[in-house]
Amino acid sequence: MFFHKKEPIHVVNIKEPNPRFAQLLLEQFGGATGELSAALQYWVQSFHVENAGIRDMLQDIAIEEFGHLEMVGKMIEAHTKNVDQTDAYKSTLFAVRGMGPHFLDSQGNAWTASYLNEGGDVVRDLRANIAAEAGARQTYEELIKLSTDEGTKNALVHLLTREISHTQMFMKALDSMGKLTEPFFGNIQPDETVDIYYNLSTNGTQDERGPWNAEPSFRYIADPVNEVTKG
Amino acid sequence: MFFHKKEPIHVVNIKEPNPRFAQLLLEQFGGATGELSAALQYWVQSFHVENAGIRDMLQDIAIEEFGHLEMVGKMIEAHTKNVDQTDAYKSTLFAVRGMGPHFLDSQGNAWTASYLNEGGDVVRDLRANIAAEAGARQTYEELIKLSTDEGTKNALVHLLTREISHTQMFMKALDSMGKLTEPFFGNIQPDETVDIYYNLSTNGTQDERGPWNAEPSFRYIADPVNEVTKG
Amino acid sequence: MFFHKKEPIHVVNIKEPNPRFAQLLLEQFGGATGELSAALQYWVQSFHVENAGIRDMLQDIAIEEFGHLEMVGKMIEAHTKNVDQTDAYKSTLFAVRGMGPHFLDSQGNAWTASYLNEGGDVVRDLRANIAAEAGARQTYEELIKLSTDEGTKNALVHLLTREISHTQMFMKALDSMGKLTEPFFGNIQPDETVDIYYNLSTNGTQDERGPWNAEPSFRYIADPVNEVTKG
Amino acid sequence: MFFHKKEPIHVVNIKEPNPRFAQLLLEQFGGATGELSAALQYWVQSFHVENAGIRDMLQDIAIEEFGHLEMVGKMIEAHTKNVDQTDAYKSTLFAVRGMGPHFLDSQGNAWTASYLNEGGDVVRDLRANIAAEAGARQTYEELIKLSTDEGTKNALVHLLTREISHTQMFMKALDSMGKLTEPFFGNIQPDETVDIYYNLSTNGTQDERGPWNAEPSFRYIADPVNEVTKG
Amino acid sequence: MFFHKKEPIHVVNIKEPNPRFAQLLLEQFGGATGELSAALQYWVQSFHVENAGIRDMLQDIAIEEFGHLEMVGKMIEAHTKNVDQTDAYKSTLFAVRGMGPHFLDSQGNAWTASYLNEGGDVVRDLRANIAAEAGARQTYEELIKLSTDEGTKNALVHLLTREISHTQMFMKALDSMGKLTEPFFGNIQPDETVDIYYNLSTNGTQDERGPWNAEPSFRYIADPVNEVTKG
Amino acid sequence: MFFHKKEPIHVVNIKEPNPRFAQLLLEQFGGATGELSAALQYWVQSFHVENAGIRDMLQDIAIEEFGHLEMVGKMIEAHTKNVDQTDAYKSTLFAVRGMGPHFLDSQGNAWTASYLNEGGDVVRDLRANIAAEAGARQTYEELIKLSTDEGTKNALVHLLTREISHTQMFMKALDSMGKLTEPFFGNIQPDETVDIYYNLSTNGTQDERGPWNAEPSFRYIADPVNEVTKG
C-alpha cells in the first residue's frame, strides 16, 4: 500500500527557471536512465525475489526512487511554470505539450518498459540494478555540468549521491551471496570453453592485451579464423 | 571492417525441429536479452572508450556476439525450415511472417535500441555489460530448461557459457580500474547523505535488515516519514 | 515523498493459481488500460494543475492506483509462483521471462507512456481521466468474465468498483467547473461552423439520425460532397 | 468504401511559410492528439458498436477527421514547400526527411496506435472520444498561440472549433444512453467500497476538500494508513 | 476531402467465423504489411510529389487501400462478432480487447508509422511502394494458405490481386521516368567504386557467383581483406 | 562467423568537427534508412533464402553494410570527440547521452526492427532491398547537401555510391528470376480485377492520366462510386 506526503524527500529550490534545461531534466523523469526506470525496476523485482531481506531492500530503494522522481518533477515544474512565454519556453516541447513534467526524455521519446532489466533470478536483478544506477549517475553528471542554477545543481548532486548509495547497497547484497566478483551464477554448468578469449577484432599488427584476456584466467586464441573454423 | 565466414563459431546441430521452441529462441535473436543487444551494445561503446585495450576487448566480444547471433539464427532456421506445415508451425508467428529468424522476441515485439545501456563513461558501460550478460544468461537457462533436443541444448549451453566468460572479462576490466567493488566513479563528489539508508517500506512490525543497511557502512533511518519530513 | 506499507490496500487471496490467467492480468499491470497508466497519468497531471483541491485529488487517486498496481502484481505473483512448472506455465511468457509481474500487457508489449493523455489544461486532464477509467473498467469486466477463481474475481470486482468511484470523483470535479456537460473549454472562441454536422458517410438510402445531429443543436449537412466543395 | 475529392473540407491559405512552425504542426498530423488518432479511433470503434445511429455518427466524424488530417497536411506542405533551403528549413526535421507532412509528431516520434483508446463497449468508446477531442483542442490552442500567420490561425481555429462540435455530438450520444453524468456502466455491479474516498496524499496539516470527496456522495477516509491496514 | 459509402469496395461474405483466424487477419489491418501501412504511405507521399499525374495515382491507390482496410476490418468483425464466447474466442486477444478490428498485428503489436518508407524523392517513394506491395502480397499468400473459409479466401484473393495491380501501376510510373531498371536516381554522382563487388562473406572454398557480381557490370574483389585494407 | 579488422572499409577523414552535423549523421547510424537497417535486413533474409547464390550475395552486401555502419560511427565519433564542450555540442543530444554514435536517429528515436521488410519469399525480399537502398540514398543526398566538410562529403558520396551499387546487384538478381519488371510473383493466381484502375480521388473536372492507368494494360473505372457500389 502506497502513501504520499506532499513535502519532498529532499529540498528543491530553483532560483533561475530555465525551460531549456527543464527539457534536459526530462531525461531523468521519463528517460531511460531516469527515476521512473529505477523505481519500477526495483519494485517489480521485489515480487519474485525470495529472500525477504533483499525483497525489502528493493522496496525501500524503489520507494525512495519514487520520491526522487517527484523531486525531478518538481524541478521541471519550477523551470517551466514561473516563466513568461518567452522564446526559451517556446523552443521547448513544453510549448506544445504544456508546462510541468511529462513521461518523456529530453528528445521527446515516451518512456517505455523496454528500458527495464529484470526477471527470474536475484543475481541478475542486482547486477541490472548496479547498471541502472551507473546509467543514472552518468546522466546526472552530464546534467550537473550543463546546469547554471545553484539550487538545481544541489538537488542534482543529492540525486547523484543517492545513486552511489544504492550502488553500495546492491553491491553489499550481491557480496552477501558471493556474487559481486564471481561471474558464475544459476544452475547450469558452463562447458569447457569458459576460459577462452577470441581475438576476433584485429589491427593487423599487435593487438592490445590486458587482465581481461591474460593467462592463467584466460586461454587467448590469437587467430580464431584459422583456429576455430579449421579445427 | 567486417568479414564473415559461413562456418559458424560453434557447431549447431538440431535433431528434432520444433517451431514452437523456435519462437522461444527468438528471445535471444531479437529480444531484450538477446545476442543482437549484446553485440550492438559492446560495439557502440567501443567508439567512445578511450582506453585502447578495453576498446579492443569490447570489439572482440562484440564480434563474438555477432557470431552467436548467427548461431541462434541457424537454430531458428533449422527449427522452422525442415518441418511440414504442421499444426505446430501454424501456431507460431512463422506461419504468417515466414520461416527463419526475425528481429522479434518470443512475444513478437520488434527489437529496439531502447534495450541498450551505454554512453559517456567506461565504468558505466562495463557495469551495463555485466548486467546484459546476466540477463542473457538467465534467458538461456530458461530456454535450456524448456528444450528437449540435445543438439539445441548443447548449443545453448555453449552460449550460456560464453556469457559467463564475458562477465569474467568485464569484471577483470572493471577490477583493473578499481571499480568492481567500489560504488563511486566519475567526477562529481557525493554529498553527506551517501551513507543513509531510508526504511521507506515497512511491514508494521520488525523490518528485515542485512549487510545492505548495516552499520558502519550505512546510517539506518528507521522512520523517514517523521525524521525526514519533520527535520 | 512516498511511503509504503507491505499490507495491500485490499485483500488478495488466490485459491487456484492459473498462469494463463496471470498473463491476461498483465493487461492491468503493464497494459494500456492498466493501473500503471492510471497512477502515472493522474500523478503527472498534479504537477501542472493550479487548483489546490483538484491537485490533491489527483494525488490521492494516483496513490490509490499505485496500491491497485500492487494488488494486481500480487495476483500475478500468486498465479505464477506457487505452481509446478506445468504445461500451463510453459505456455505463458513467464516461462522465459520469469515468474511474477512484468511491465508488459497480455500480448507481451512493454508499457509505454504513449498511453497517457495529459497536459496544459485541467479540463482536458479530467476528461482524459474519465476515459482512462472507462478503459480500465472495461478490461476488468472482460477479466472477471474470463476468471474462474473466486478470490481473483473478488479482487477484480473491487478494482472495477474503484474505477467507478474515481469516475464519480472526476465527474464531480468537472461539474464544479461547469465542464461536465459543456463541450467548450479554454481560451479560443470557436468559429461559425461549430453547430454543423457533416453527413460524410452515407448508405445510399436514408441515413441514421439521433440527438447527436438533431436540430436545433446541430445544422445537418446531408450532402457535403456538393454543399461543401461547391459552395 | 472511401472516396476523395481534391478540394479540402475547409480553406487552407498560408501566407508566410515557416518550416519551424510546420514542425510544430506535425503534432496534429502524426502526434498523439492529432487528426490521424481521431480518425482511426472513431472509425475502428464503428466496427463493434451495435447501435446503428451511433455507428453512423462515428463514421461521419471519422471521415471528417480524415479531411482535417488532409488540411493539416496541406498546411505542412505549404509551410515547407515554397521556402528556400534557408536556415529555418535546415533546422527542422524536413531537412533530412524531405518536405511535406510525415506521420511524426513535433518531436519526431512515429505515430503509434498505442495512442488509441477503444474497444468492447460504446460508453467506454464515447468517453475516450471526449478525451481525445479535449487533447486535440488543447494542442490546437497552443499552436494558435504560437502561430503568427493569419491563414494558418484561421485554419487552426476551424479545426479547434470542430473538436468542440464533435465533443458536443459525443456528449449528446452519451446523454441519450444516460451515461453523460452517470459514472456507472456495464454489467458488473460494484462492491460496497464504491463511495469511499482515500486521503492517501497528505500535507501534514489540513487537506484540501471539494465536491469530489464531500458527503453524502463520498465517505472520506482521512487516515487510510491506520484505518485500512489495521482494520 | 474524404467521403464514405457504407457498401464495401468488394464483397465480404464470411460463412464460418473463426476468431483465431481473425487474429491472424489483424496482420493486414494493423500490421506492418497491412492496408493501413499502404494507405497512409501512398497518401502521405502525394503531398510532396510534384508530378500531378503521379500525385493523383498515389491518391487513387491510397483511397482504394482505405477501402481494403475496411474490407479486412469487416472480415475481422465477422470472424469475432457472431461467435459465442467459446474457447476459440477466449484464446485470442479479442477476449480482453473486445471484438472487431484493432490497430494491432497478429502478435498484438500496435501499428507504428515506423513501418512507412517515404520522403524527398518520387523514385524513392515508388520503389518503397513496390516493396510495400510485395510485403502485403506475401502476407496475403500466407493467410490464404491458412484459411479454411471460402468467403474469406475469395476476399483475400481479391486483396492479393489488387496488390499486384498496384505493383503494375507503380512499375509503369517508374518506367515512365526510366527508373524501373536503372539503379541510379537523384542529383549526386557516384564515385569510381560503383561497379565493385566485395566478396566479404566466404565459405572457405569456391564462392557462389551470379549476374549480380558478374563482369562486365561488376568488378569482383575476391579477397577484400587483403585487397582493401592493404591497398 | 564474424571477423573484424580495425581499418575501415573506406577512408574517413574529418577536418572540421561539427556536433550538430553529427546528430544529423545519426540518421544513417540508428535511423530508419541507416546502415544498421540495411545490414540486418539483408543478413536476416539470408537465413531463409533457398538460392545459394542469392543467399551469398545477401551476406556479402550485409557484411559490407556493417562496414558502412562502422564508417558512419567513426564520422560521428570524429564530429563529437575532438571538440570543446562548446555551445554547438551542448545543443545536441550528445551533451546528455555522451559523445560518439548511438543507435538513435537524428530526432533521438531508438532504432527499431519495425523498419525492416523481409520474410517468406526472395522476390519480396529483393524488392524490399531496392526500396531500402532508395531510402538510404535519399538520406545521403540530403546529408551531402547539408554538409560543409570535404572529408565528410567524400565519405558520404562513397556511401551513397554503394547504395547504387547494391541496387544494381538486387536488380540483377531480380532480373535473373524474371521479376524486375513483372508485377506478379508467388503461388496465388490473381482474380479478374487485376487490370482495373479505380479513379477514387477526383478533382471535379478532368483527372490526370498516365501509363499507370492507360489501356490496354488497365481498365479505367472513371466513376467507381456509381460503377462499383451499384453494379
TrEMBL record, chains A, B, C, D, E, F:
Q: What SUPFAM superfamilies does the record point to?
A: Ferritin-like
UniProt-annotated binding residues for Mn(2+): 35, 65, 68, 133, 166
Q: How is the cofactor bound?
A: Binds 1 Ca(2+) ion per subunit.
EC number(s) for this protein? 1.11.1.6
Q: Which UniProt keywords apply?
A: Calcium, Manganese, Metal-binding, Oxidoreductase, Peroxidase
EC supergroup of this enzyme: oxidoreductase
Asked whether the keyword Transcription regulation is assigned, the reply is no
Q: What CDD domains has UniProt attached to this entry? A: Mn_catalase
The protein, known as:
Catalase
> What is the scientific name of the source organism?
Chroococcidiopsis thermalis (strain PCC 7203)
